[in-house]
Structures are given as C-alpha cells and as structure tokens.
Write a structure and sequence with these properties.
The structure holds two protein chains of two kinds. Chain A is mainly alpha-helical. Helix content of chain A is about 75%, strand content about 0%. In chain A, helix 6 crosses helix 15. Chain B starts with 9 loop residues before the first helix and ends in a 20-residue tail after the last helix. Chain B is mainly alpha-helical. The chains are: A mainly alpha, B mainly alpha.
C-alpha cells in the first residue's frame, strides 16, 4: 500500500508506535479493566458480606417475619443495621472526620498534640496493620510469579516471629543498632528455611506445595504450642503459654508518640515492596523466576534450572513472610503468645490476588486490608464477629479470579482479552 | 515386534540396596530398642473383647511373652531384609509396609508390657478416626477422576458439619441433619464446578475461595447466632446400630458391624465408588473425561455435564464426611472443628493413587496414627516422657509429617489423571 506522501506515512507510523507504547506501558485498554474490576469486586463483596450481617441479626430477622404488616420498618431496620456496621468499620479504620478536624485546630492553635494523636489513632492502626499485610502479600505474590501457591505464609509468619522473639529476649548486651537488625535477619532467615522445605520437596519430588505448605502450617502451630508451653524452651516460668518480653534494644522505634503504634516497620515494608519490584523486573534471577512461572517448559528449554528457581522463590517468599512475623514482634507485640498472627498469612492470598501479584498492587491492597481489619475490630465491639473479614476476602478472591463473573453481573463488555496470570498447576508440577 | 528388555538401571539397583539396608535397620531397631528394656518374665495382655458383654461372642485375651515376641518380630524383619539384599523382592513397597507394621506391633507389645490393652477398641477407634479422611479421599477421587481438582474438601466438610448440627437441632431429626450436610456439600461443589468449568478459574484458587468462605461463614454464624442460641447447637449423636449375627463375630464384629450410619455409609461408598468407577459405563466415561477430554468429547461424551455431576457427587460425599465431626461424635459444632482432615483426605487420595480402596487403606493408616496418639495416653507410665508436653506435641505433629512424607513419594510417584486441573475448552 502506497498512499500519501512519505511525511504522512512516517507520521502515521510514529502515531501507531506511540499508541502501542502507551498501551504496553499503561495498558490503556486494560487500565479501565484493571481498576474497574477490582472496584466492582470489592463493592460486590461488601454487599454480600452485608447480607450475612443482616440475615444473622435477630432484630432484622424478626422484622422480616412481620414483613407484610410493616414493610417499611423491615427496610429501615435493614438499612440501620448495615449502615451502623459499615459506619463502625469506617470510624474504626479512618476515624471521625469532624473529630480529626477539631483536634487539628486545637493542635494548630494551642500546640497540644494529645487530642490529635487520639483522633488519628484509627488511621495509625490501619497503617500499622497494613505492615504485616504488605510483607505477607509480597510473599504470596512472589510465589505466584514463579507459579507457586504459598498457602504457608501463616506458618512462616509464626516461625519468623518465634525466631526473632528468641533473639529479642535471649541475646543481651548489644546496642540497638546490632540487636534490632540481628533479630530481623534471624526472623527472615527462619521464615526462608521453613518455606524452602516446601520448595525443595516440590523441586525434588514434585510434591505439591499447596498441601505441603498447609501441612507445614499445622506443624508450625504445634511447634509453637510446644515452644510456648514449655518453660525449658520458650515459655514463661509461670506456665502461661507466651514467651518472655523482648529487650527494648530490639524494639522497632514507634514514630508518632505514645498511644499511636505506627512504627518504623512501615517504611521497611514499603522498601521491601520496591526491592521485590527491582528484583523481579530488573535482575536476571527475577527474570528467571517469572519465566518459570509463566511457562516452565520454555524456561527448561532455555536452560533454566527449574528446581533451583522453585527453591529460591519459595525461600524468598518465606523470607518476606518471616519479616512480617519479625515486624509484628519487634514493632507491636514484643512477645509471642497464643494467636500471634490473626490470619495475616491466609488473608494475604486474597491480597496478592487483588494486587495482581504486582508489588504496587500488593501495597495498595494491603492498605485496604489493613483498613478493613482495623475497622473490623471496631465492628466486633458491636457484636459483629471479625470472621466477616474472611467472607469478604473469599468474595474478593472469587471476583478477581473470575472477572467474567463481575462482567456478567454488571453487564460490562469485554474491552480486550487481558492475559491472565497463571497461578498454579496440577499435582504433577 | 521385539520386546525391549529394560536394562536394570543403576538407580533402581541402588534403591533396592537402600531399601534392604533400611529394612535391616528397622529390624535391628526393634530388637535393640524394645528388647532389653522388657523384663524377662513380663507379659503383654491384649484384650480382644469390646463393647457390651453378651453382645459379642467372648474370646480369651491374647497374652504374649514380651521379650520373645519382640525378638521374633525383629528376626522376622531381619530375615526379610536379608532376602531383599540377596535376592530382592518384586513388591518392595509392600514389604516396606509389612516391616513398618512389624515395628508398630513390636512397639505396641513393648508399650503394653505388664499391662493390658484393648486391641479391638483401638482398631475400632482407627476406623472411626479414618472415616472422615476416607470420605475426603472418596470426594477427591470423584472430582479428580473427571479432572477437577477439589481442594475445597475441607471447606465442604466444615460447612456440612455446621448445617447438620443446625438442621438436626431444629428438627430434632438426625437424618434430616445428615441430609442437610450432604446437600450443603453438593451446593458448595456446584459453586466450585461453576467457577472451575464455566468460568475456568484456576481450580486451586477456586478451592481456596470456598475454603476461606466456609471457614469465615461458619465461624461468623457460630459466633453471632449459635453462641446466643445454644439450643441450635445441640443435635445429639447417632447411636451405633448392631447388625444381627455379623456383629457377634469376635474382633471384626465390634469394629465393622456395630458402628453408626456414617461409618456404614463410608464403607458402602468405598465399594460403590470402586464399582461405578471401574465396572460401569458412567465410570468409564468419567475416567475418559479425566484422562483425555478431547477424545471423550469426540466420542460424544458431554465433558461438561460429566464433570458437573461428578464434582457435585464428590461434594456431597465431603458434606457427609463433615457429619462425622458433629452427628458422629461431638453432637455440637465448634469453630474450625475439621482441623485439616479434608486436606489429609486429599493426601490419602494421592497416597492411594486415586483408587477408592487405596484411598480407604491410606486413610486407615492416618486413622491409626491418630488413634495411637490418643490411646497411648492409657499406657502412659510405660512409655517414658508421654506425660510431659514434649513428646505428646510431637505425636500431634505426626499425621502432618506423615502426609508430607507420603507426598514426597517415599512410596513412589503417584500419577494423577492426565487432564487433572486443566479446564476444557470445547473446540
């Protein structure tokens, strides 16, 4: 085809290439998809969870029993139940805007920071809760990128926490700039070694990592029971199942003053996300891991060592999960007791899927989950069990994993076939 | 056609050697560990009568001289090891199993020295503890034989357990509770099937969705509804039904023919699944769909329909498995009470190489490990340290460790159905 002057043709080619560049960088076709589908997924999940709150509320149920006599009352009760529940969620995670404004005015006029700290407490809690979520979410995401499904983050968090608490209370006489990094590194290493077992078994024998990591979760729970209950191991002499307090030299510094628990781990978590991005997309090892995840046959054909990549990816995944545990110990709890991790590891599966296994997505999803969990503890005071979070997460994972379902519900048109990330394979490996 | 003669590979040869040495080691361990610590005149009494007196034919207790019995078992193991090293067995795995069995027997005799232990009771307990695992394995077999990975067995069991208690408490009818559990499992399985087959969601992700949902929903409803209405969480349990005549057989009778309906259904389902899978047209079609869906489709088999039906049946079996925890034993629902039995069922399925009887046998092994840990408490004084937390916690870890070892393929690599986990695209 030879139409128009050479100048025009050149112009058109340039335009085309710019369009292609835009689409590849931003994914113009996919951008709407990339934001709209998660948004609708979260919205739908909230609606379904709201349904659970309503049907389990005795007042609402009795109102619907008399629906025919008084339909208006049934509707209004439904509305108040849901709105007060989600209102509590908001106040528990973001705070009361008016209160924040008033406290800010007081601070600016009188220089008194105490009411401001109180008003900012919910936000601080949300950000603090997002720290283990960022680490654990990165852990699961890194596994996904290698085609490995790490359900064992929960156990790895526990193992990491136990290792760094041990360093925290047992090793004495060092200044903080040695003690704190040591505790962090030992926690990370413990998580790495623990999870690398599953990677090794997968690489060596083809045993599926899903079952193995689940089994290792139970092993970690039992091991922690054993360690915590025995005073000769890590328990307290009194017999209560918890470890001794760590020394202040191993504390992660809290940055915003007394009641606020916001600590330095937050910036470590953001740093870890940047590091994971750099590792996966800017280094040869990261490229290999992604290739093994995308197409193991091609990777093998290209001469990559699949087994080594499995072990490496699993070990790095465990490192991140171990850091999640170490951060909780050194930044928040300062000891390990029963119920140390309230399900961060399991939640992080949903989180990694929501963040499309991308570090930036993971950080954003972690903010969301941190907010949800911080708010859910406020909801729990209103008699709504915190397990509602799990229902919410299951729905979010489902809608994210099946975007066609969201499109079906909201009658969206498919704009472009987005290549789905391959997550896992069958038993054979 | 020439028959290719497979050269004996060195790896194989080495494996046989290693197995022989392992056998010898186990034999020596039996003799060295258990032999000396038993007194020369000590006896172990195994009670074989179980259940109410008069219901079964009474038989005398089995009384064994401890030292002689242990040395005999050890020598038997050493003989097998010698044969393996010199001539080599064909079925090495079978012999390995036999030698492990000998070791466990020796351990039991040693632990019972100077005491008495109800063997029939423990074997019955093994069957009970193995039942939910076997039902989980059967559920997995139904799904995976037609190539849908069902990792949500745990969630289906948990939900089945929950609804069974609620329905049975409301209606005061245990059978309606059972039915509700089966239906719940079926509904969750239908959900899994739609996600996996219609929407082609990664099957493991879909399973995780259902597991998280089941754990969340049952815990949520327990904390919000059942805690405030304890009447909804009080179902009662199935009574054992004695089958006339058969239940009077010593040892076997009390174990197999005087249990509750859940165990009977499990035994029935093992046989029925085997027959359907290997001796009916439906089974052949299901397996074809699991191995080569395209070929099955070409021959006019409806791949999607076959998968939907098999997955839903599998889910119903998992729901039935959930009733073991509630209507079968506890009579009430507690949060997360299935405690990973569904996943262990999945491991039993793999261990049993996707065969119903294989799955049943492996779930009995898991059940044995479970009941051993419970029953060893009775013999406490004879085994050093069992009263202390350390070994009891380690024993609690045993089933999970065993699952991992099994999966790692000590017993040889298990081969799943060829299309397992792959969604089918109609061409």
């Amino acid at each position: 085809m030879s139409e128009g002057q050479p100048g025009k043709r050149l112009r058109r080619i340039l335009d085309q290439s710019q369009q292609v560049a835009k689409e590849t960088v931003l994914g113009i076709g996919g951008l709407r998809e990339a934001l709209l589908v998660p948004f609708l997924a979260i919205l739908t999940a909230l609606i379904i969870s709201g349904l659970f709150i309503v049907i389990s509320d005795p007042v609402v149920v009795s109102a619907y029993a008399n629906f025919l006599q008084n339909p208006g009352y049934a509707f209004s009760v439904t509305w108040t139940t849901i709105s007060s529940a989600y209102g509590a969620l908001f106040r528990g995670s973001i705070g009361d805007p008016r209160e924040i404004y008033r406290a800010l005015v007081t601070f600016l006029q009188a220089g008194d920071a105490a009411p401001l700290r109180l008003a900012l407490y919910p936000i601080s809690e949300s950000l603090t809760t997002s720290v283990p979520y960022i680490f654990a979410g990165l852990a699961v995401a890194l596994g996904f990128r290698c085609g490995l499904f790490n359900i064992g983050a929960e156990g790895q968090i526990l193992i990491g926490g136990l290792a760094s608490v041990w360093v925290g209370y047992n090793i004495t006489g060092f200044p903080w700039f040695i003690h704190l990094p040591l505790a962090l590194v030992v926690g990370a290493l413990a998580g790495a070694l623990w999870s690398a077992i599953a990677g090794y078994l997968k690489a060596r024998t083809g045993a599926h990592e899903v079952i193995n990591t689940i089994m290792m979760n139970y092993l970690a729970f039992r091991l922690s029971d054993l360690l915590l209950t025995d005073p000769r191991l890590m328990g307290r002499p009194t017999g209560t199942p918890m470890t001794p307090q760590i020394l202040p030299t191993a504390y992660l510094p809290r940055l915003l003053g007394s009641p606020l628990r916001f600590h330095a781990g937050f910036f470590m978590a953001l740093g870890a996300a940047a590091l994971v991005y750099w590792f996966l997309w800017k280094t040869t090892l990261g490229f290999e891991i992604r290739t093994v995840g995308a197409n193991p046959d091609a990777a093998r054909y290209a001469g990559m060592n699949i087994a080594r990549n499995f072990v490496l990816a699993m070990g790095l995944s465990g490192t991140l999960a171990g850091l999640a545990g170490a951060n909780e110990v050194l930044g928040i709890t300062h000891f390990v007791g029963g119920g140390f991790s309230p399900g961060y590891g399991f939640d992080s599966i949903a989180l990694a899927l929501l963040g499309k296994s991308h570090p930036l997505g993971v950080v954003l999803a972690a903010f969301l989950f941190g907010t949800l969990r911080a708010g859910a503890s406020k909801m729990q005071l209103m008699g709504i069990p915190i397990d509602i979070i799990q229902i919410l997460q299951a729905m979010i994972i489902m809608f994210i994993a099946a975007p066609a379902l969201v499109r079906l519900i909201y009658r969206l048109k498919v704009e472009r076939e987005v290549t789905e990330v391959v997550f896992t394979r069958g038993w054979g490996g | 056609m020439t028959v290719a003669i497979r050269p004996i590979s060195r790896a194989l040869f080495q494996r046989e050697r290693a197995m022989g040495l392992l056998f010898a080691l186990l034999g020596l361990a039996i003799i060295a560990l258990f032999g000396p610590s038993a007194g020369p005149e000590q006896e172990a009494t195994f009670v074989l009568n179980f259940g109410q007196a008069g219901k079964t034919t009474p038989i005398p207790d089995l009384v064994l001289p401890v030292q002689e019995a242990i040395y005999l078992l050890g020598l038997l193991a050493l003989f097998l090891a010698g044969f393996q090293l010199v001539r080599g067995f064909k079925a090495t795995n079978l012999i390995l199993g036999a030698i492990i069995f000998l070791s466990i027997l020796a351990f039991l005799i040693w632990a019972t020295r100077g005491k008495s232990f109800n063997l029939t009771g423990m074997l019955g307990h093994m069957l009970l503890r193995g039942a939910p695992i076997a039902l989980g394995a059967l559920s997995g077999i139904w799904c995976e034989r037609s190539a849908v990975i069902n990792i949500a067995i745990e969630g289906m069991m948990l939900s089945g357990a929950f609804t069974s208690v609620v329905v049975a408490s409301i209606t005061r009818n245990l059978y309606l509770g059972l039915l509700a559990a089966v239906l719940t499992g079926g509904v969750l399985a239908a959900w899994l099937a739609v996600l996996a087959i219609r929407f082609k969601v990664d099957q493991i992700v879909a399973g995780v969705v259902i597991n998280i949902f089941a754990a969340g929903a049952t815990s949520f409803l327990t904390a919000r509804v059942l805690v405030e209405n304890p009447a909804l969480n009080d179902s009662g349990t199935f009574r054992p039904i004695a089958i006339p005549l058969l239940s009077r057989i010593p040892v076997i009778g009390p174990i197999f023919f005087e249990t509750n309906i859940i165990i009977y259904s499990m035994l029935f389902l093992v046989v029925v699944t085997h027959i359907i899978l290997f001796y009916t047209r439906w089974g052949l079609r299901s397996r074809a769909v699991g191995e080569h869906p395209l070929a099955a489709d070409t021959l006019g088999i409806n791949v999607f329909r076959t998968r939907y039906i098999n997955v839903i049946i599998g889910g119903m079996i998992a729901g039935l498995g959930g009733t073991y925890f509630t209507l079968g034993s506890a009579g009430r629902f507690d949060e997360l009470m299935t405690a990973g039995k569904g996943f262990i069922g999945l491991a039993a399925m793999i261990f049993g190489k996707w065969n119903p009887f294989g799955g049943f046998a492996s779930s009995l092994i898991f059940g044995f490990a479970d009941s051993l840990q419970v029953k060893l408490g009775i013999l406490g004084g004879n085994i050093p340290y069992t009263t202390e937390p350390l070994p009891s916690e380690i024993l609690l870890m045993a089933p999970y460790l065993a699952t991992m070892i099994v999966l790692a393929g000590v017993v040889g690599r298990a081969i799943p159905p060829a299309a397992d986990g792959k969604p089918y695209e109609k061409q």
